[in-house]
Structure formats: structure tokens, C-alpha cells
Amino acid sequence: MNGSGVSLELGGAALTLLPERGLWWAAERTLVVSDLHLGKSERMARRSGALVPPYESAETLARLAALIEAHAPAHVVCLGDSFDDLHAAATLGPAERAGIDALMAGRRWTWVQGNHDPAPAELGGAWAAELRLGGIVLRHEADPGEAGAEISGHFHPKAGPCGVRRPAFVTDGRRLILPAFGIYTGGLHAADPAIARLMGPGARAILTGPTQVTLPLAAGRRAPGGRPRRAVRGTAKGTA
Hints:
The protein has helices at about 40-50, 55-70, 85-90, 95-105, 195; strands at about 5-10, 15, 25, 30-35, 75-80, 110, 125-130, 130-135, 135-140, 150, 155-160, 165-170, 175, 190, 205, 215, 230. The protein is of the alpha/beta class.
């Protein structure tokens, strides 16, 4: 591991929120990413006729390959909406399929089902509705009734000061929502009620990118005084 990222304690586990939008769980040697939305350009062209450069799957897989090379995980978990729909999964090009096969080689791989890909695609690895690791449940969309520690995706949270938004992690120390890892993904503001209602007191957004900063969710779009609050000593600890 290269030492970058923001540390978070969740459900008794020490996690690292990576600036590249992934989650590293060192004790489990597990890399977690969410919402790759592979094949989105093909789905957009098929459904609406909108033509966008069809390179997002290759770029998303290249970014994932870089994280795997940096951390050498024994297990990779994709938290749902890995494919933009099942047809997009079935029609991935040979280069993308070969890339996925190369990433999966020699390690455990779990595809968690999402609302865009609710059934297994014809790929390797294991598929699951949800996964439990080390006392933490990992699922695509947060369950409001979950009483324990939880890691999820789905909402593509973004946050940032002065109207400049970046993909962000959102956590209250018991729940953690990951940003979308895919290239062609929009986002929901981290303070949106759909996200905020899931969070308890002290919830905050941790921005991704070269400079990770922490913003209190209660402050909405900016921290008190109009300035983002930097993550102290690279940590964002909470109580589980």
C-alpha cells in the first residue's frame, strides 16, 4: 500500500478511503469499489441514440487495474451496478472481457448485485445479493433498517465547497457510502435528503482526489466559514 488515503474506523475495522474512489480494508486484504457502470456508452446509444466516446469501460478498468497493482488485494468486491445493464454486460468487447479476466486472475472476486445488474452476467467470480465480512454488511444500496455497520454505494455522492463538486465518501461512523468508481456517472449531493436521512449525528463527506478534505454534512454545501475542513492527520474516525 502506498500510504495515501483517509483512515476510518467502522464496525471495529480499520479502513482506508482512497483518493482514487476505492476502499482498502488491509486486515481483510480486500479492495472495495462501487458503481463501475461498465458499458454505459453502449446503453446510452442503444436506448436514446446519444453518442458519447465509447472508451469509459476501458478507462474505468485501467483505473481499477492501477488500484489492484498498488494494493495487491486477495479479494475484490464490486458493490453493484458494475454494468450499466445486463445487455451492456453481455455485449462487452473482447478487450474489456480480457481485461476483467486479467484483473480477476489469482484472487477472489465478488460481484454484489445492484439495481442495474440484478442477475449474474456471464463472467467469472461470485455473485451475491449482499456480503458480510468481519461483522460488516456490504450491499449495493443502504438499508435504513440495518442496525449494524454497513458499506454501500448506489447514490454516487458528490460534495465540495463553492459549487465545485467531487466524488465523495459519506459516513457517520456506522454507515459508509462509496462514491461511484465509473467514468460516466453523475452524482447526488452528499447533503441531499436521500443520503442525509440515512446518516446519524456527525456525518461527513470525504472528498476524493489528490487533496482529500472532510466536510460536515450538517453544513450542507460548505463547512462553517465557507471553507472545507481538511481531514486531520489523514483520519476520519467515528464510533461504530
